[in-house]
Amino acid sequence: MPLRQIAEEQQKFESNKKDYKRYGWKNIAIKIKENDLILFNRQLDKLGFETLGDMVKELLAGKITRLTEDKQIEIMKINSQGSGQYTLQPETNYDFYKKIDTDDLLKEYERRYHPKTAKCLVSYFRRYGDIFFGINPDLPLFILKPHKRSWILQAMKRIGDYYFWKYNSREVQDLVKRIIERYHLNKDLDMKDKIYLVNPGYIINKLTCLMAIPGHIGFIVRVGLFTGLREEELYYIYNKEICNNELGCKCDNLHVINLDNKMTIIGINWIRANKKAFVTILPTMIWKDFRNLSKFDRSDIIAAHSITKRDAEILYVGLRKIHYNVMRFKDIMNSDEADALAGRAKTTSAQHYVLHDLKLFSDKYVKAWNNFGINIENK
Fold this sequence. Notes:
4-stranded mixed β-sheet, alpha+beta, 4 strands, about 5% strand, hpI Integrase, Chain A
């Protein structure tokens, strides 16, 4: 470029600089990595701006605001208006969930869950749908007892599943999840308040995979599956001394009763803070083989965890959920009996069901497994 032209460009620049100052303009420069420039321009285009200056103009005009969680939820509600068959006009105030055919909803649930569970889910949805999908759902929901709030959340999560089953859309699932997280609606819902929903197809699939695991690891999996105990509770019953007295004894040792139906009931009564293990049942032969293992420790659980995750797509700790679902399926065991085995019942309740009729208690256990094609008496 000739020197004269360079001088003219410099003079023009200085003139523009003076004009900027005269009319109150200010240059604002930003630094950006060269590798990010393409991404930056793409994001500007996605927002509808051709240049950074265009975006600054909109920002100054107050047309760009931070997208808060509440605003994101509102947008998701609007998007959900058009999901599936429930296409509504924009001014309809997010009542897409009111258009759900609850008779069809019940039919879908009954295909997957116990009939009683299906009816409960539909009932909670009818009663609390307006609150959950309304403004500030936390205010009325936190007044309720945790157990009821847990059922409500499960009912709303299943609505998301229903939309996915019917229309292959996860918008409502995402909306429900965002509402729960935004308002911390699952706060203070510990393990005893969680609802374990029985889906027979899911349970059968997992049991088929779990029972096919061979060898020593397969044995460790079956111990966890048939007892429903936590990892540390399995270590406890493996190492703890056995008392020769009946279950009514108040000592700290295990109390073992071998029954004629080839089942063994073990009184544990081990309580640590909010974690409790009152009693468990398992086949007598498995119990004897378990106690006769030369070694059982953390390495066995780690190995079993890896195999169950690979072969059955479930964590070893998830065996408790399978066990609980099996006991509750078709109400073979009522909630108090199943809770006694899961360590979630009150101590007096657990003792009652164990001591009242050992044979009946163990027969229900055998029948529960038979429901899923597992002849546990021959294990």
